[in-house]
Amino acid sequence: MTKIFNRGNAAGIITVIVLLGAWQVIAMWKQTVYVPPVSTIFLTFLKEWFSPTFHQQAVPSLYRMAVGYFCASVIGICIGITIGSFKRIYQLLDPVLQFWRAIPATAIIPVGILLIGIGDQMKMVVICFGAMWPILINSADGARLVPTERLDTARIFGLSNFETLIRVIVPSATPMIAAGMRTGLSIAFIMIVVSEMIGSTDGLGYYILQAQRTFAIPEMYGGILLLAILGFLLNTGFVQIERRVLAWHYGQSARTV
Amino acid sequence: MSNASEVLLDVNELQKRYADGTLAVQEITLNVREREFVSIVGPSGCGKTTLLKTICALLTPTKGSVRLHGELITEPPPQMVLVFQDYSRSLFPWLSVTGNVVFPLRKRKDMTQADKLSASQRAIEAVGLTKFAKHYPWQLSGGMQQRVAIARAIAFRPEILLLDEPFASVDALTRADLEDLTLALRNEFGITMLLVTHDIDEAVYLSDRVFVLSTPPSTVLEEIPIPLSQPRDQVATRSEPAFLQLRNHIHGLIGKKKDDGMKSFVLEQTIPRKVELEGDPVR
To answer: Which residues of A touch B (CB under 8 A)?
Structure first.
């Protein structure tokens, strides 16, 4: 996992090459407009995304996502840790949270449009809303499941409630918070595309839908390819940072397994 | 070392009933003198952990009192530290050995940063982990992790150390090492020890006095002075006739016979269980 391209991945890369080759052959043989050959998609991709289009379409998406995801993390961690640290609050809110998080995040987009309109803010809000739940629920569980001995230790050594929160509960919960943030990241990615498809004048979701509607089929596939690459890079980057920050957690789990 | 000194910890008619009505500790009266090693021994599940947690005020007693130097305890006092059985849950896995040992000292306003570091170094040295100071707890064996927990406790310089079955999750050889380490630390740092265990031999081996508990809801069955010679030795002490006599006596008290282990555990004691809901502090 730590190296993206190592020997173990060689077989996987061969699979990718074979699949792309099959696509290329079939597309050239069938000659359909709807599924252009990989080579065409790839050339269009280079032409489109190494041009100002990247700045016009991809940057707005990434910006909205960054803001929305950041807010989701801050709100989710703060509320989650608070809920998880107090048994009473947890018992009070748990049913509401379980019900609320069952709403598919995309279903909230019409509400967002209704209340905020179709600007940047709406997209940031719905991304934040969607990505927040896994972060919040995981943070709450992480805080709730801190071993009693660890909390008792903090009390015995005379830590105040606030110190216990910052120095014991939060560090104990970080592995779960990180797991929630990783799920939240992929949800944020879905939310940005869908929200831009529904009401937008720029962004990757808009670009892909617009390309499809104007029969710019290679451009459509190129946009999807860009999304795939961005998603892969975001997730890989996240995992790399997580491995570094939570080295103790991975070391510990490796020992106990 | 024992008799003449002053009473440090005084537990008087302590009772603990949980919020769900379970009476874990019925009535315990015991005391610990300064620099004494006292053990509380009882069958599994006799509320020993509850008793220790109530003594150090992690739990609020339903009746009775705990006094340290004659003063009533209502919050965990800084002169008292509890070492848990499960070191993997009480240590902080994100901190190194040194980080763990220094951790509780951050509250000490009377110590400079250099004092704190030297105190932690001394504690780590006393438990023989100097070479592993930069390791993380999960990189160490179970016995070493418990040593870290003990080092963390003694660096805090408590007057009394409460030990909750601290050697129950390690192998027999490590266990003997840790027992002798605990005795050595008592001498080196002058810390009073109150140990809770289900291991009768361990209690007799380590202690100056042993309190034998009944099955739950627990009461003190007997207080037994242990007049074995000091210093204790794993081989010599354990083969003294007095040692065997004492352990057999305690075995008899607890009612554990080798042939019918579990059956005789249950001393019939019917205590009316009134459901008294008492707010149990949650965190």
So the answer is: 85-88, 147-153, 155-159, 167-168, 171, 174, 248-249, 251-252, 255-256
ipTM reported for the complex, 2 dp:
0.83
Residue B42: count of CB within 10 angstroms of its CB: 27
pLDDT at B277 over 50: no
B58–A157: do the CB atoms touch at under 8 Å? no
CA distance A157 to A172: 17
State how far the Cα of B111 lies from the Cα of B107, in Å rounded to an integer: 9
**Stretch A189-201: mean pLDDT, rounded?**
91
Neighbouring residues of A158: CB distance < 8 A, sequence distance ≥ 6: B76, B78, B104, B107
pLDDT beyond 90 at B259: no
* Distance (Å, whole) CA A170 – CA A82: 10
Q: Residue B154: closest CA among chain A residues belongs to which residue?
A: A157
| B2 pLDDT more than 70 | no
> Do A112 and A122 meet the contact criterion of CB atoms below 8 Å apart?
yes
Task: Mean pLDDT check: name the lowest of A52-56, A86-90, A96-100, B265-269.
Answer: B265-269
Say how far apart CA A194 and CA A110 lie, in whole Å: 11
The two tokens of residue A19 are 């699949």
Indicate the SS3 state at residue B65: strand
How deeply is B188 buried, as exposed, middle or buried, from its count of CB atoms within 10 A (0-12, 13-18, 19+)? exposed
Given a cut of 80, whether residue A89 has pLDDT beyond it is yes
Concatenated DSSP letters of B151-192: HHHHHT--SEEEEESTTTTS-HHHHHHHHHHHHHHHHHH--E
Q: Tell me what the mean pLDDT of segment B42-68 comes to.
A: 90
Q: pTM for this one?
A: 0.84
